[in-house]
Amino acid sequence: MSPSQIIxxxxxxxxxxxxxxxxxxxxxxxxxxxxxxxxxxxxxDQHFETKNRVLRLYNSVNDQGRITNYGIGLRSSYTDxxxxxxxxxSATQIYRGWDVNLEMKNQTFYNLDLLYADPGFxxxxxxxxMRGDKTKALSGSHQIIVTDILAKKIFGTDDCLGEILxxxxxxxxxxxxxxxxxxxxxFNFDMLASMQTENPDEFExxxxxxxxxxxxxxxxxxxxxxxxxxxxxxxxxxxxRVDVEVSSRTELLKNIYMHSNVDYDLxxxxxxxxxxxxxxxxxxxxxxxxxxxxxxYILQGEKRLSEIATRTSLGASKLKLAKLFYTETGIISxxxxxxxxxxxxxxxxxxxxxxxxxxxxxxxxxxxxIVLLLSILAFIIVVSGAYxxxxxxxxxxxxxxxxxxNNVNRKHIMSSSAVTLQLTISxxxxxxxxxxxxxxxxxxxxxxxxxxxxxxxFDVFRPSLFRNHESIENELSKLPFITQIGxxxxxxxxxxxxxxxxxxxxxxxxxxxxxxxxxxxxxETMQLQIISGRFFNKGIADVDKLIINxxxxxxxxxxxxxxxxxxxxxxxxxxxxxxRDFPYxxxxxxxxxxxxxxxxxxxxxxxxxxTDRNVTKEMIESIESVLREYxxxxxxxxxxxxxxxAEKLQNEKQLIKMVxxxxxxxxxxxxxxxxxxxxxxxxxxxxxxxxxxxxxxSEIGILNMLLRETLVLLLLSMxxxxxxxxxxxxxxxxxFSDRISLNWSHFLISGFSAAIIMMLSVGWxxxxxxxxxxxEALRYE
Length: 781
Prior knowledge:
Layout: H1 3-12, H2 14-42, E1 54-63, E2 66-70, E3 72-73, H3 76-79, H4 81-84, E4 88-104, E5 107-117, H5 121-124, E6 143-147, H6 148-155, E7 164-167, E8 170-178, E9 191-194, E10 208-214, H7 220-242, E11 245-252, H8 256-259, H9 272-301, H10 305-313, H11 318-346, H12 348-355, H13 367-391, H14 397-401, H15 408-445, E12 455-459, H16 463-466, H17 469-476, E13 482-488, E14 497-503, E15 511-518, H18 522-526, E16 530-533, E17 546-549, H19 550-556, E18 565-568, E19 571-579, E20 595-599, E21 606-611, H20 617-630, E22 638-640, H21 641-647, H22 650-684, H23 686-694, H24 699-733, H25 744-771, H26 774-780
Parallel strand pairs: 5-9, 6-8, 15-20, 17-19
Antiparallel strand pairs: 1-2, 1-10, 1-11, 3-10, 4-5, 4-10, 6-9, 7-8, 12-21, 12-22, 13-21, 14-15, 14-18, 16-19, 17-20, 18-19
Helix pairs in contact: 2-9, 2-11, 2-13, 2-22, 9-13, 9-15, 9-22, 11-13, 15-22, 15-24, 15-25, 22-25, 23-26, 24-25
Subcellular location: Cell membrane
Keywords: Cell membrane, Membrane, Transmembrane, Transmembrane helix
Domain MacB-like periplasmic core: 23-229
């Protein structure tokens, strides 16, 4: 077609322009964003040249049926295994450091990622330094490598070898500068310090992530078995000490992000729920768009029956007519495709916020995405053009010249099926949104076993602070808005220590249990709910006393644990309190693991303050001014406990955004499609409506006739969608120990919403047709 022919074609078919192009454009936009997102997720760690021959070791720990996969292992896994497996070319371990703040040149650099690694780090991951000697940069104590981005922020240049950085009151020498690793890496850092700084040989527990570089000619499967077998033997003393079963496993570097079973990894892993939901939404929206396109194209094409019949009578073959239809569908699809690219770039910020991620603009134009998008475009053209080409060329020539169609039943079935599928998808998504929203609101409302409101935590992991914590507490208690002060060695809502416990003098095996090391006042500050017993008192008499949660009491088989003597650290420890279960590690609503609060005799790492009102900026400044009296270089590092626990529901909130967006898009496209279909169907029955009115049929009767079929399809869609959503949402809710029960209200709202969509799109056109003057209707025909 020439440009002028294309313009005439579009002018003659306004529904294709105003309905099909935007509808298909929205569908393709969602698909394009999905492709970019999935491609980005699957690209994790693929930039490492050694991705196919680097194995990471992990340990599957079975504690009497409770299995946890630990990515961390013993130091001996690094020192001993390479001696017995000649196929290992190099090895390294990574030790997770703290998020640290640096203050240099009157500037503060917040929340910098610090990792520790062995010298083999560069060989294992085939990385090079921009500055420095990679063979020596991590070979000694207190050596540190910084990324080029951080170097320029701190020093104004990446030429900074030999500069000194002070972290936790210890000086580190900059021995290298490395290019910042891509975001799609399963570990990342701003600073990489030498492992020797931490005296790793003194660690007796599971602390280190272990990686091995395997020889190119070696059989990876056999090497994996050798590594696992040796590590099983190395783990035997540790497993015997804590009385658990350990089975060692390995995984390839390229599979860690997408397929790892490791719990509590160096970073978050792929969110399969988000990926599956995105795929379903993209598929649903695209299906609705294609259905609309085919239906409207066919119904619009019926107006061209005389043209088609004339072309046929003049010798046009079915192949030539099919070529015409494919050309037209190609024009519409191409315009929709171009619109999709523009829309995708425009809505990228909203999409990034939706999935809590960031996407490079270049990702839209990568070779893989271009090939995939062109393939999808070709598929849409074939699918969208196939049925019109087959359907519109099979009419009886005599009837077609009169503008009449045969195959009424086939049109009816196709149209009804399309409407049913569109409404079913919309109802399913709306119902899912309502259920997910209800569950999240329920999780926000349940009693968590403690009170996270009006509590702010401060990182005090600096010697000048934690050594003076008693004096600091005395000063803070003078501030009028502070009602309670607590200290701990663990971050509330964050990580914890793993210990073993049993009843003192018992022959029973020890059980693994999580531990929070706290000081007196912590439980009161968090307002933990005491069931029996008491909290810790200050003074030497309560040191090494224990408070346990309900899950721990069940673990130990104790109905009344207060006053009982437990065995921890191979010494007796009295249980003085039993508290309600509270979410200390997982998000609210998940099963709560056994926990012991130990009255810690060492130095605290975290300070917690409860206030008598909502925390303000002025309160924070007052607290920090006290901390700076003991550490003039202290820089702000605080967080609200309520915010921390709100973030634990981030995945659920993200799911709400995705499903609600999908429901909105599906509803909009369905509304547009149903509106267009109703216009065409009413126009097709204009003569019948006119005859009925001449014969005395009322407007209500006409309206009932036009809406009856749609109402039946709506009820059928509701039944299918309700059954499907009930099964899907029950499965999703099964992942929560605290959950809502599905009831009729969740489905009533979605059904009512679908009815509104149907009435707005079909009801108005039907009402207009019912009120039309029959003389005009007959004249129209």
